């Protein structure tokens, strides 16, 4: 599977979301065996002394550490029974932290991993045996059994018998899901008169057994660094969800992530059921693209990291481990052993690692010129900001505020009257960068307040004049977090923008500082591979005194977003810090105009949303996803599941038929009323900004085409502007028309 955009969630220093999936990247870290015992001890001391709560280690905290560890390694409650948990409590709950303070981190991490891995492997064994019994005959799936969709919030199984049944249900659900998937794909292929791609698939049981094999390998391949990192993170997360430990490898990933720049080969990887790692995408202009030897769909089976003949077999290896092998220093070649297709002979590809262009991680913009009903034209800008990035390792490196300023200044020259700031999926970043950005719209004044453990409050201000005085809409969703919430909150408190999107943002109201543990180690200790502690040291507050913690920033106008149905947000996490408020900051004045016109803006928007079929379809999807999430039950009856799937397929077909006609009409109308120009950082100095056409490919990466997805008939939404952007444009227009 591809690395999920949420899987790196807790690794952001000032953020709550993660970097884009799976691009092999980052400078590798080479070091001798770290002194994990000393690292663990210093980690424990720094955490207690630096964390906002100043909570000391105690027997009560030790019990929390153990529960946190079990949650971290077993989030779906599939490995530990309640009997197991009771045994571990008796063994470790009263002494957990003492192992760290006594300099026994390594042994303790290995002991805990043994407790976890022996149970995990035993259950994987049983699942593999069950699948083996299905090789000749699959179950009939004609009973009324059900199984939970997610076990995350369910209590642990009481004993091994109960947990064994949970695994049988899970395996049967995997089998039934795969059987129904194959039948659906075969039916679609027949309907379109195309070859059935399922004829090339391995038998169901064999394919699923390969997935379990990869799961087994992930448990078995954990090294000491992984074990120690898991242990220390279990401790850190009991203080709050955003404090954590980063091993040396993860520290470098974090630095690359926050500066929106990476070193690698420029390829996206994905795990395959046959044990290989597939080239899922190739970054345009990156090292792999320039080299030309690596092709989309190639499957890697071995890696020689230094091109020195030391091959590592990566079959069934976890994607993280593969990425670690492929990454390396700039200018150093890596050799890959790859297969191009079924039955293809192995070939070797050598690529020299280099800086990978990550333009999709940088600020960019569009300018929409529209013809109004009275025949006049109006220009509205769309500023897209994936993160509040900066280079932590270099002075004068990339900084989002400087980039955004360039884009806004150019938009001013293009006579843009209003602006949309799109912060969807922006997990945050640098507090300094967001402080500067708010000033572009408000001018001099306070931006955010911070409070330290002693209760000392500080206003963070910005100086200088505003550079954009037009109307502003800020789009946020549930994954707009941290610095995004500071920006949205300040813009709302000043009355400078209308906030639209999900009901509220993520709700992360804390500030983390990354600190190298090497700085805290004893003088004669080895500092190799010490890693980094990221610890919460402050809480931040809006200038009106409200916290964003747990509650986030509420939207003025709620639009049906794809993220609305997801159970995401600070309040969904464990060990979250509480919501509170402080006095409002002195020195800012709120413009009352938006508050005055907001009721009419909301009324007009609601009317348009009610008439927009795409947004109504989105609302239906949100309600459906929320319902099935709340029910949390999958039927193991094939007829029942097939009927549910058929209902969804028929609905999708009806929607597709409608969109074919409707989108064609929209595209024709767009051609006569809209002109969209591209404004990327490389375009700022152009004499004339390029017009975006329907055939423009703005993707930064060439991606492999999924033959199954191609069978699904999709009608592309008219180019450039999605439904949320279109409604946001309408809201800006309304703002410009109102006195």
Q: What does this molecule look like?
A:
The protein is α+β, with helices and mostly antiparallel strands and 739 residues long. The protein has 19 helices and 23 strands. The strands form five sheets. Strands 4, 5, 6, 7, 8, 9 and 23 form a seven-stranded antiparallel sheet that branches. Strands 20-17-16-13-12-11-22 form a seven-stranded mixed sheet, with helices on both faces. A hairpin with a 7-residue loop joins strand 6 and strand 7. Helix 5 crosses helix 6 (160-191), helix 12 runs parallel beside helix 13 and helix 13 runs parallel beside helix 14 (483-493). The longest helix is centred in the last third of the chain and has 36 residues, at 638-673. It starts with 35 loop residues before the first helix and ends with a helix. Residues 1-31 have low confidence and may be disordered.
Topology of this protein?
Elements: H1 36-50, H2 59-73, H3 82-92, H4 96-101, H5 105-133, E1 146-147, H6 160-191, H7 204-220, H8 224-236, E2 244-246, H9 248-258, E3 262-264, E4 267-271, E5 277-283, H10 287-291, E6 299-304, E7 312-313, H11 319-326, E8 333-339, E9 347-352, E10 354-356, E11 364-371, E12 377-384, H12 400-413, E13 418-422, H13 431-442, E14 445-451, E15 457-462, E16 471-476, H14 483-493, E17 498-501, E18 510-516, E19 532-541, E20 557-558, H15 593-611, H16 613-631, E21 634-635, H17 638-673, E22 674-679, E23 701-703, H18 707-711, H19 723-737
Parallel strand pairs: 12-13, 13-16, 16-17, 17-20
Antiparallel strand pairs: 1-21, 2-19, 3-10, 4-5, 5-6, 5-23, 6-7, 6-8, 8-9, 11-12, 11-22, 14-15, 14-19, 18-19
Helix pairs in contact: 1-8, 2-3, 2-8, 5-6, 5-7, 5-8, 12-13, 13-14, 15-19
């Amino acid at each position: 599977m591809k690395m999920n955009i949420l899987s790196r969630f807790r690794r952001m220093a000032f953020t709550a979301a993660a970097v884009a999936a799976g691009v092999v990247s980052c400078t590798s870290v080479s070091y001798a065996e770290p002194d994990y015992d000393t690292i663990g001890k210093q980690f424990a001391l720094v955490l207690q002394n630096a964390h906002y709560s100043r909570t000391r280690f105690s027997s009560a905290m030790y019990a929390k550490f153990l529960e946190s560890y079990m949650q971290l390694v077993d989030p779906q409650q599939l490995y530990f029974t309640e009997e197991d948990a009771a045994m571990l409590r008796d063994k470790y709950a009263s002494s957990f932290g003492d192992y760290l303070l006594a300099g026994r981190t390594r042994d303790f991490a290995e002991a805990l991993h043994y407790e976890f891995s022996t149970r995990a492997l035993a259950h994987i064994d049983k699942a593999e045996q069950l699948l083996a019994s299905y090789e000749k005959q699959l179950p009939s799936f004609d009973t009324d059994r059900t199984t939970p969709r997610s076990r995350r919030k369910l209590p642990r199984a009481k004993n091994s018998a109960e947990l064994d049944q949970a695994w049988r249900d899970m395996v049967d659900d995997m089998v039934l899901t795969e059987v129904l998937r194959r039948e659906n794909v075969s039916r679609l292929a027949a309907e379109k008169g195309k070859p059935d791609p399922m004829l090339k698939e391995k038998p169901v049981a064999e394919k699923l057994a390969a997935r379990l094999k990869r799961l087994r390998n992930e448990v078995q391949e954990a090294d000491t660094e992984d074990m120690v990192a898991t242990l220390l993170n279990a401790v850190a997360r009991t203080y709050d969800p955003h404090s954590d430990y980063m091993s040396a490898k993860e520290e470098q990933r974090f630095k690359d992530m926050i500066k929106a720049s990476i070193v690698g080969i420029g390829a996206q990887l994905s795990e395959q059921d046959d044990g290989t790692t597939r080239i899922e995408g190739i970054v345009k202009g990156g090292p792999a693209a320039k080299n030309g030897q690596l092709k989309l769909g190639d499957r890697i089976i071995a890696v020689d990291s230094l091109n020195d003949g030391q091959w590592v077999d990566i079959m069934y290896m976890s994607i993280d481990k593969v990425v670690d092998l492929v990454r390396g220093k700039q200018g150093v070649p890596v050799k890959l052993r790859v297969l191009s297709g079924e039955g293809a002979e192995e070939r070797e590809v050598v690529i020299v690692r280099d800086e990978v262009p990550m333009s999709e991680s940088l600020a960019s913009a569009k300018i929409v010129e529209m013809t109004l009903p009275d025949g006049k034209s109006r220009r509205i800008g769309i500023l897209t900001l994936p993160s509040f990035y900066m280079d932590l390792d270099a002075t004068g490196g990339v900084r989002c505020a400087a980039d955004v300023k360039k884009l806004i200044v150019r938009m001013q020259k293009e006579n843009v009257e209003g602006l949309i700031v799109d912060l969807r999926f922006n997990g945050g970043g640098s507090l300094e960068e967001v402080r500067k950005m708010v000033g572009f719209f408000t001018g001099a004044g306070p931006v955010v307040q911070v409070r330290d453990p002693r209760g000392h409050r500080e206003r963070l201000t910005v100086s200088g004049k505003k550079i954009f005085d037009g109307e502003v809409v800020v789009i946020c969703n549930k994954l707009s977090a941290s610095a995004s919430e500071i920006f949205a909150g300040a813009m709302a408190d000043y009355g400078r923008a209308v906030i639209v999107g999900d009901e509220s943002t993520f709700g992360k109201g804390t500030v983390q500082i990354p600190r190298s543990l090497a700085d805290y180690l004893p003088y004669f200790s080895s500092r190799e591979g010490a890693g980094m502690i990221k610890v919460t040291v402050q809480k931040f507050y809006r200038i009106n005194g409200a916290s964003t913690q747990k509650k986030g920033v509420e939207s003025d106008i709620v639009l049906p977003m794809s993220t609305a149905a997801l159970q995401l947000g600070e309040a969904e996490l464990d060990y979250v810090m509480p919501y509170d408020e402080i006095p409002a900051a002195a020195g800012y004045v709120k413009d009352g105009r938006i508050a005055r016109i907001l009721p009419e803006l909301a009324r007009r928007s609601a009317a348009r949303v009610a008439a927009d079929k795409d947004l109504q379809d989105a609302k239906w999807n949100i309600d459906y996803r929320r319902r099935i999430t709340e029910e949390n039950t999958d039927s193991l009856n094939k007829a029942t599941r097939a009927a549910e799937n058929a209902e969804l397929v028929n609905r999708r077909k009806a929607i597709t038929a409608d969109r074919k006609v409707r989108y064609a009409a929209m595209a024709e109308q767009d051609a006569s009323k809209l002109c969209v120009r591209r404004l990327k950082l490389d375009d700022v100095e152009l004499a004339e900004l390029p017009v975006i056409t329907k055939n423009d490919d703005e993707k930064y990466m060439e991606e492999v085409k999924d033959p199954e997805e191609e069978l699904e008939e999709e009608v592309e939404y008219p180019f450039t502007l999605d439904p949320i952007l279109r409604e946001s444009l309408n809201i800006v227009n309304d703002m410009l028309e109102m006195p």
